[in-house]
Amino acid sequence: MSSTTATAVNPATGEILHSFKHLTKTELTAKLEQAQLAQSGWQTNHISYRAGCMLQAAVELRERQQEWAELMTQEMGKPFKDAQAEVEKCAWACEYYAKNTANFLADETVITDASKSYVSFQPLGLVLAVMPWNYPFWQVFRFAAPALMAGNGGLLKHASNVPGCAAAIEEIFEKSGFPTGLFTNLQIPSGMVESVIRNPLVKAVTLTGSEPAGRSVAATAGDCLKKTVLELGGSDPYLVLADADLENAAEVCKTSRLLNAGQSCISAKRIIVVGEVYDAFMKIFHQKMAALKVGDPMEDATDIGPMARKDLRDELHEQVLRSIEAGAECLLGGKIPKGQGAYYPPTILTNVKKGMPAYSEELFGPVAAVIRAEDEDEAIHIANDTSFGLGGAVFTKNAERGEMIAKEKLNAGSCFVNGLVKSDPRLPFGGINHSGYGRELSHFGIREFVNIKTVWVR
Ligand code: NAP
After folding, report:
1. For labelling, which of 4, 103, 134, 207 has a CA lying 20 to 30 Å from the CA of 430?
2. Residue 190 CB–ligand 1 contact under 6 Å
3. 423 domain-assigned
4. Which residues of 353-377 are buried (b: 16+ CB within 10 A; e: fewer)?
5. Residue 4 has what pLDDT?
6. pLDDT at residue number 1
7. Pair (319, 376) in one structural domain
């Protein structure tokens, strides 16, 4: 990859799709100034006007759903049917914030010694979003829909392997009536992110991505005293308790682990099964994992496409090999297939123990790490024995007990009972510890990038 272009490579075939030129410093400055101009006008528009544009963005998404989905599949390899669903979810987020922002950002009266005092929510200005490739539309829309509805401008630094998606999203906002530059695609390499954060026109930063990228962006933003939201990695535990519906638990664990070829921050990365049901669970889980079809992501019958890049696939394989060297057993998969493309098979590692990469590192691909626990207490202990804290799930027929474990025992931002951890515009999403801080989605998300302003009148 040249230092002056971002090149998209189809991970299913290795074919070069297209290259986009990186902005020069002068072009970058001009883009920031144009964005600032657009934002200063945008924030004076009534919320109902902003909502009209956001509803139009939902229309633009749906009208060209096939085109956007194909672009995602080509650039990062997710099955086409999943990419179509991703476009629909983006449209849902646009509609959700179009409908609810007036309520979420309404003034809140507080009775004090004033004749009138209240809290109002004002936009911050330009917000930089550094985004990953794994859900190349959804990650961006779940930032942009609330941020723009709150009156901010959005600056996108998307992952280098999805430059076409970045340009497409800019086009969608522009065609939907948002002022030119309000949502700007900054086609820059990650080395230029620091200069954007340091620019006085930029008021806040959000990053969805890896821990090292989060540390780097937060350090610069901290140095400039700018607000950050970080959505980082995860190693979500899925606990299968002795009284679980094993068929459901195995189905959900399989789906969660293999969705998007396992490249999801909230997939079931550590499956922790209590000894009493271990053998019975593994029998069903193994069958389900082995039955999936890996192949061309454009084909309807395909469950799992290639991983997004060959280097990521090779890194994952190296984690698998290191875990096996340390004593894990490979029950399924674990071998790089012959032929073209960044494919990796559904893989199951058992006998996973503390000290192995599969226990403590994030495995960002279709590899299930299964850990056996003596009992419920040990399962909970193992679940929390991680530096991450994004999501978690517990499986038990005693929903009340499951709820207690989800609410009081698991240390994570989202804990589900008998179901798959997922994002939903109506629910806050985010992590604790090394999974980051701050929240996206729901009314919590839209309040991350606003000035919560006190107004006091005698
Ligand atoms: P990544 O390598 O950290 O890249 C994410 C974004 O950060 C890309 O735009 C990348 O640009 C940029 N970047 C990388 N290093 C940077 C630096 N030092 N300074 C500034 N920007 C930098 O992550 P990824 O491989 O794309 O995504 C996988 C990770 O994201 C996983 O850990 C996953 O769990 C996490 N993730 C978290 C969530 C969540 O909601 N918590 C959601 C999705 C993914 P370039 O592409 O140009 O390098």
Report:
1. 103
2. yes
3. no
4. eeebbbbbbbbbbbbbbbbbbeebe
5. 86
6. 39
7. yes
pLDDT at residue 27, as a whole number: 97
Full DSSP string of 280-299:
HHHHHHHHHHHTPPB--TTS
Asked if residues 238 and 392 have their Cβ atoms less than 8 Å apart, the reply is yes
Assess whether 244 and 187 both reside in one domain.
no
Clarify whether residues 178 and 249 are in a common domain.
Answer: no
Strands 116-123 and 450-457: antiparallel
Query: What stretches in the chain show pLDDT beneath 70?
Result: 1-3
Tokens of 80: 């086409």
Structural domain contains residue 425: no
Task: Provide the domain limits for residue 62.
Answer: 5-232+433-457
User: For this structure, is 231 an active site residue?
Assistant: yes
Helix axes 163-175, 65-76, angle to 10 degrees: 160
Name residue, tokens 């859900």.
135
- Identify the three-state secondary structure at position 309: coil
Q: Report yes or no on 182 lying in a domain.
A: yes
DSSP 179-206: PTTSEEE----GGGHHHHHHSTTEEEEE
Residue 240 dihedral angles phi and psi, to the nearest 5°:
-105, 110
Domain CATH code at residue 268? 3.40.309.10
Whole-number Å distance, alpha carbon 332 to ligand 1 midpoint, is 29
Distance 131 CA to ligand 1 centre (A): 6
Q: 428 lies in a domain?
A: no
Q: How much distance in Å is there from the Cα of 151 to the middle of ligand 1?
A: 26
Whose Cα sits closest to atom 42 in ligand 1?
265
Same domain, 137 and 183: yes
Here the CATH number for the domain that contains residue 59 is: 3.40.605.10
Ligand 1 atom with the shortest distance to the CA of 6: 47
Q: In this predicted structure, what is the pLDDT of residue 2?
A: 39
Mutating to test ligand 1, I would choose from 130, 161, 264, 314 the residue with most ligand atoms within 8 A of its C-beta, which is 130
Q: Which atom of ligand 1 is nearest to the CA of 130?
A: 9
**Cα separation, 205 vs 202, whole angstroms:** 8
What distances in angstroms separate CA 305 from CA 130, 370, 420, one per listed residue? 25, 23, 21
Q: Which two tokens stand for residue 388?
A: 């991450």
Residues 423/439, Cβ–Cβ less than 8 Å: no
Q: How many other C-beta atoms can be found within 10 angstroms of the C-beta atom of residue 247?
A: 11
Shared domain check, 249 and 221: no
Count the domains in the chain: 2
Atom of ligand 1 nearest to the CA of 423: 40
pLDDT of residue 422: 97
User: 263 and 159, same structural domain?
Assistant: no
Instruction: Tell the burial category of 295 from Cβ atoms under 10 Å away from its Cβ (0-12, 13-18, 19+).
Output: middle
Instruction: Assess whether 282 and 365 both reside in one domain.
Output: yes
